[in-house]
Queue: 2 jobs
Job 1
Amino acid sequence: MAPDGTEPQTGRETRLLVLVVGVAVLVLLLLAQWQFPGSTMSVVTPGGAPLAGLAARATFDEMAGTMADVIGRVSPLTVAVPLATILEPDPRDAAPVRRQAPAPATTPDDANAAPVPEAWALALRVRRDLALAYVPGGLTVMSREGATFDVVAHDGPRGMWLLRVPPSNAVPDTLSASVRTFPNFSYVAAVTATPVGPTVQPVFVGRSDTVTDPGWSHALVPASVAPGVSPGTLVFSLNSRLIGIVVDGERGPMIVPAPAIETLVQALDAPEGTTP
Amino acid sequence: MRDVPSDVRRRELGGPDPIDRRLGVPQTPSPLTWLLSLLRTRSALGLAPSLTPAVIFLPLGLLLGPEATGLITPRLLERLTLAVTIALAVLGVMVGMALGREIRTAARLFLAASLESAVTTAMVAAAAAYFVATTQVPLDASLIGFVLALGLCASASSATSAHPDSEPAVAVATRVADLDDVLPIVLAVFVVALIGAATRAEVTTMLLAPPIIGLAVGGIGWLLFERAESGPERMLFVLGTLALTGGAAAYLHVSPLAAGFVAGVMWTIVPGRVDRVVEKDLQRVQHPVVVLLLVTAGASAVFSSAAIWLLPPYLLFRLAGKVSGAWLAAPLIQIRSSDLAAFLMPPGVLAVAFALNFSQLLPAASGQMLLSTVAVGTAAFELFALAVVPHWGPGRRE
């Protein structure tokens, strides 16, 4: 022991230190030769603040949180599709046919300019690369930057278009996990398209009486039971299961229930493209 | 030959006495109890390594967590966040009280411990910064804040794998391991401000908040604890005060460890027996707190490629940092550096506590990466210590 009360280091201790540090540095330099294989960090759900669970929340806050949850789950199941005015005969007048995607409505003067959509439709993914959209009469689907939409099938009388869309990573269970019984006296989520993506608002369904329409395989629900919904709106339950699509019918806007949509998709996707 | 009744044969000569009859026949130990008692006996004799809580509860948490059986769901983990925050404050109080008592008589030990932890922090942070920058590991947080947080997690030590009475070196190493958590807790205040503050005003708030919370809570405890009229009332005051510490720290997004640490130091300094009162009551919650932290950390660990990528430099440079720190600190406290380094190998629950603390404050992906790396590293070092520490156990003398 040294006179000042400290213990001097022996050669063995120093050799041990040099060995450990040397090996660590050497291995670090070797490992640093490789590049990290991933380019992005894994997506995780951000954690809430530690006290957030204890804080009192207003009812409207809960509804807002529910809507945010619905739009977060539903957005990957939808595709915003731009619509343009067609310069050809109304497709409602024609029988269901398969054809190529119509070209965007442009004139020679603005051929070089990017076409501006007249409106937006929200297509519902029914397969990995197929989506179903309701397109009002007088409008047609146009492609947008970064996404090309090919028309797989078109049901003119009902205004339903089956589109080939950029494929998603996951197989959507939109139809298989849909709501089979139309809810009444409950809130639903009405999802519509905007130029920047889908948006959602809560709508109260007061009644669920149905009306029979010979054009559809299942009974429809008048959209007036859920005020504020317009044709093209996708209706989901608060746990993000599909309830139906709002279409424009002879007796006003109607909510087409999910089973009817499933039947229609099977018909449109069939080899001959026949409708029920 | 007369047959001896079985109950007599297995008891003392002369058969059961009146006391035996009143107490009844002793229960045959279950195989699990027998195995545990055998393991404890062999551990006490130095014939087998002692299992530490981290070796048991980190894998258990992983097994119960969303990555394995899913018994602990992500929603439950989210709800446990507040309990974890309060548990961190409890740990901070414990470290603060340990410092408050030791600093008066062991300033040299404190200096050595701080030197060792500073060296470990610097080495791990430097190695991690070089590795992350060179290999382009994606980070959604400040690089400096992240690597400093990793370094602080690495600096924690716990010399609980050996019995403190076995030899003088063990007692010194144990006290160093207790005191080397002080500097990281103080530095964590600055790292948290570096991570979470966006403006100069926020930096000031995040630097001042932990000592202010700690002093306020310490004052409240000082005024309340000794005036309690009964044990349960006092316990209620203690737990309420700790909940206030954790809650205030969580609300302000600052370190609950630091706030609890300041309160713990204050309770040992102020006149009276407040520290004894708190210590007695904390003994009841100490073990549940450790289990809660370890199981939560295990369940929260996500073995992403980034976390596994970061593990080798963490393990290597924590080892190198501890050896280097011990080499520099050992001459100050009259102990061989190899002895000190060996006893500083197990990170203990404090490393996991630091990781949980930082994971609450870092962006989600970086927080998960840090927590997973530290959790796996802690389990690895605890296992490594099982092999290393018994060599310096009972029986060896200078």
Job 2
Amino acid sequence: MKTDVLFQGFLQAFMWFWAIVILYPLIYVFSASFSSPHAVVSGQVWLWPVEPTFKAYEAIFNNPQIMIGFRNSLIYTALGTVISVVLTLLLAFPLSRPRFVGRGFFTWMLVFTMLFSGGLIPTYMVIKGLGMLNTWWAIVLPSALSAWNVFIARTYFKSLPEELYEASTIDGISDLGHFFRIVLPLSTPIVAVIALFSAVGLWNSYFNALIYLSNDTLFPLQIVLRNILILGNIDISMVQNFDAMVRKQGLSDLLKYAVIVVASVPVLLFYPLIQRYFVRGMMIGSIKG
Amino acid sequence: MKKIAIFALLVGGLSVLAGAQTPKPEWLSKGQYPLTKEKVTFNVLMQSVPNVTDFSTNQFTQWLETKTNVRLNFIMAPYDAGAQKEKLNLLIAAGDLPEILIGMNIDASTEARFGSEEKIFLPLNKYINDPKVMPNLNAWLAKNPTARGTITGVDGNIYGFPEINECYHCSLQQKMWINQDWLKKLGLKMPTTTEEFYKVLKAFKEKDPNGNGKADEIPLMGATDSWNTQAEPFLVSSFILDSGMYNKMKLLVDTKSGKVSSILDQTAYKEAMKYLARLYKEELYYNNSITQKNDQAKQLMAMDPAIIGVFPSGYPGIMIDSVAQNALWRAFTILPPLKGPNGYSSTPLSPAGLTPNRVVFTKALKNPELAARWVDSFYSYDFTSRKYWGAEGTDWRWAKPGETGLDGKPAVYKVLSKGNDVQNIHWGEGGINFNPAAYRFGLETTPGIDLGSPDGLEAMLLQVTAKIEPQVRKDVVILPTVKFTVPESEELQLLQVELERYSEQQRVAFETGAQDVEKGWAAYVKKLNDLGLQKFLAIQQKAYDRQYKAKK
């Protein structure tokens, strides 16, 4: 009994310690985004906002580049996630059926892509050859199908009882009907997991946009964000418009934290909503039935 | 045809009449506009600029297209050099060549690779040398003979048009700032020698100049990572000319003999190390300066009451906010270079504001002569003003007689609108910059502007820079930018990494007293030579002779 209390106490303290270690940077960024830039630079902010102000958020919502980037990121994430989920499920289901001819071959094709990749330049040339450069498709299509996600989904489908299939076949349902009416309703956890993986991946994607896009109006938020963060590193020898420079430096100091908040809030909101599926889905997918 | 000619004459005549009231600026675009009868489109790989919303719909882009009849098809590259290089290499490897590259930070090794080795960049000599094609750039280079050496590649060809930005205060960027309120309060004079400086620092430390009763003052503080925020080069320059924190090998050229040398193994440098060790030991030089970042320095600077007495930086705004901390901002003034024990004093003069390879043509370019004429337009006050400030008449205008510039001489132009943080009116610092000293000085300025106000910054920098200019030495100069062939640079890089690492490490050891200067010096010099210092200098000498000797 006594050891239990001790153990629980220790566990609690340990968990609280980690919770604080993880939470503190988040709270700091959040507080800094509401503080005056001067207070942040001079190190007065350590937990709560100092001289609270909404100036940074005002500046963000008045900045056309950030708003365009935000819109683009939303589009890429939404569109890319739908495509990714549909393709992954449609590939994973046949691969999970023992009756499917060529299952081994297709599985090996997938494994092959996990081990080897074409490299940057050939991939670029394929994208270019397909005419996807400088379009939405260059962001949402190349990363649509991840072999890893397919395997997770396949394993999940395999864990569904085979008797279900037999029963529905006796009732005269087709393979597609079986997928849509029996399998899919039972698979919400795995759909949620795949959607989350691809959505977070797309939201954070930076490199694809960097190399495939060359038009400012198509840039996702991550690229705009990077440009703003490095604005602070001004080459003074270039500057003639000192007034603009002082304002630019201030802008960068001011926006830095608020932009990070704006860029991470959608993902932070997304997590709790599907977290319950998340844990279950991962677990189920990982145990072979 | 005739009609057009007459019309052109009429319009030309009218504009001459209109311009007659004000003195004409020296550098105006000299092309025949529009540059081409039929519209021509160039594919341009362009560095994006964070505060320009969209280059393709930008007002200056539209004006440019109407004026020159050249349309630009923009391929946007990132703002920072690392990501740019990635994109450029990818485009070249995939055979997807843009015709013109603007602002792509092409360094000497990239130039050597894609220029003289792979012939992807076009040599530009014939356009630059032809005053009919590039009248402005040609004339500018004729006036600035050393510039040609800087932009010439290892094979004698020029692969890029330079950016010209003669920033007077940046040419003497090693500056030290001292709290004059503290000097006044303690009844001290501005120090002129290293010994006087030592005494001032000691007084700052011991006599409580901020008056809070605590010995919390930091007499001298530096930081490792921002614009000239290391204190050592300024102090070393009182013993031997130190080329600044960015030139770790500290290379100099003797102006008479043209001999390249490094100060790292010289006796005067040894004396400087002893002086630094003394300041460090008595904690007159804040000991964390050797490791701290500028962000930390800013926080110390913001303490109330102020605790910093002296700090180095290219301009004080790096550590002090001129608006939010204006009182502190006004307290600091320039500390001119100090005389060493032998009466030696110096300050490094950085080479003229010239960046090679701002614009590069690739072999995909179909009409290089037209493109060269187009580029030449930017080397003019009218184009540069429109590019940097916006439309004539609303954002800026030519100066009227009687208006004075920063240097007190007649102004060239006056800025009418300060613009917004994010805008789509001009290209800002993007594109091809042409800011010769006369243009920068030509900015209309209210005479007697308050130098301590944020608006007075440029005038203040001009004034303090003029104070330290007399300390520039005539007998030695910093080694100008030197370009190497591919095998040379491979050999050099190996040597340089080791030499820089070792000399830096030893400098810190000497400075902090971890290694006694007197005892450790002989071993230090021997190790430098073992690491290949002489070989390193020989390669530099060879490259320097190749690039500059012939051109003189």
